Automatic annotation (TrEMBL):
The lineage of its organism: Bacteria, Bacillati, Bacillota, Clostridia, Eubacteriales. Residues 11-72 form the HTH iclR-type domain. It comes from Desulfoscipio gibsoniae DSM 7213. One of its GO terms (biological process) is negative regulation of DNA-templated transcription. It comes from the Bacteria. Gene3D superfamilies: 3.30.450.40, Winged helix-like DNA-binding domain superfamily/Winged helix DNA-binding domain. This is Transcriptional regulator.
Length: 256
C-alpha cells in the first residue's frame, strides 16, 4: 500500500546536503567554517556531507584554500530538468489563472523572424471585448507589449539591428515609428519591468506584458494581458501581478 505524502518525514541528512549545495551555489565557493557560520550545522557533519558530495562528483575542492564549489554535474541535472519540463502546459495554467483573476485576455507569444507569434490565448468567461490577435497570429515587435517586453532584454545596438528588418508601419496614431522613440520606450520598460501597448497596435486595446527568461537569461517569450482600458493604477497593479507570475515561471524554467 502506497505511503501517504503526509506521513513521509524528510531525511535529515539529505535535507542538510541540499542546504550545503544551495549555500555553495549562492556564494560560489565556501569553506567548512563558512558553511558552519552560514548554516549553523556542526563541522563534523558538514565535513562528511561535503566529502560525500565530492566523492559523487557534485563538488570540487580547492587544494589550496579548502573551499568547496559546485561541479558541472549540478548544471547537467538542471539542464535535463528544464528539457523535461512541459513548459507550454505550465504557461497555459498561468494564462488561465491570470485571466480568471484579473478578467483580462491573457496570451503567450514568442519572437519569430522579427515578429511576435501568439501561441496560446485564454479569455476567462469571455472578457466582453475582442482583440485582433489570435493563436497563430503574427504581430509587430515594436508596438505590442509582448514584443517590447522581449526587446527590453536586448541591447540598444541589437534592437537597432532588428529595427531595420521590422517593416515598421503606422498602425494607429499612437504607434511608435521612430527608432529613437522606441529606445526611449524600451528604457522605461526596463525600469518598471513590464511593457505597455497603449492602443499602439490596435484601437481600443490596451496591453501590458512581461518577458519569460530561460536558464541562459535569454527570452523564451512573453505573457501579455489585454483589456479595453488601462489606467495608471491598473498598470501598476497588473504589472505587479504579471511580474510575479512570469518570474515564478522563469524560475521554474531555470532562470536564476
Amino acid at each position: 500500500m502506497p505511503i501517504s505524502d503526509k506521513k513521509m518525514e524528510p531525511i535529515q541528512s539529505i535535507s542538510r546536503a541540499l542546504m550545503v549545495l544551495e549555500a555553495i551555489a549562492e556564494s560560489g565557493a565556501l569553506s567548512i567554517n563558512e558553511l558552519h557560520n552560514r548554516l549553523g550545522l556542526n563541522k563534523p557533519s558538514l565535513s562528511r556531507i561535503a566529502a560525500t558530495l565530492y566523492t559523487n562528483g557534485y563538488l570540487n575542492k580547492d587544494p589550496k584554500t579548502g573551499d568547496y564549489m559546485l561541479t558541472l554535474k549540478t548544471f547537467e541535472i538542471g539542464v535535463k530538468a528544464v528539457r523535461n519540463l512541459d513548459y507550454i502546459n505550465l504557461i497555459k495554467g498561468t494564462l488561465a489563472e491570470l485571466s480568471s483573476q484579473l478578467g483580462l485576455i491573457a496570451q503567450f507569444s514568442i519572437e519569430d523572424r522579427n515578429e511576435i507569434l501568439c501561441l496560446e490565448s485564454f479569455d476567462h468567461k469571455n472578457s466582453g471585448f475582442s482583440i485582433y490577435t489570435r493563436v497563430g497570429q503574427r504581430s509587430p515587435l515594436y508596438c505590442t507589449s509582448a514584443g517590447k517586453a522581449i526587446l527590453s532584454t536586448y541591447s540598444n545596438e541589437e534592437i537597432l539591428k532588428k529595427w531595420d528588418h521590422m517593416n515598421v508601419k503606422q498602425l494607429t496614431e499612437n504607434t511608435i515609428i521612430d527608432a529613437q522613440h522606441l529606445l526611449q520606450d524600451i528604457a522605461k520598460t526596463r525600469q518598471r519591468n513590464y511593457a505597455l501597448d497603449l492602443e499602439e497596435n490596435e484601437h481600443g486595446v490596451f496591453c501590458i506584458g512581461t518577458v519569460l527568461l530561460n536558464y541562459n537569461r535569454r527570452p523564451i517569450g512573453a505573457i501579455s494581458l489585454s483589456g479595453n482600458n488601462l489606467t495608471e493604477t491598473d498598470q501598476e497593479h497588473y504589472g505587479k501581478v504579471l511580474l510575479q507570475h512570469t518570474q515564478r515561471l522563469s524560475n521554474m524554467l531555470g532562470y536564476a
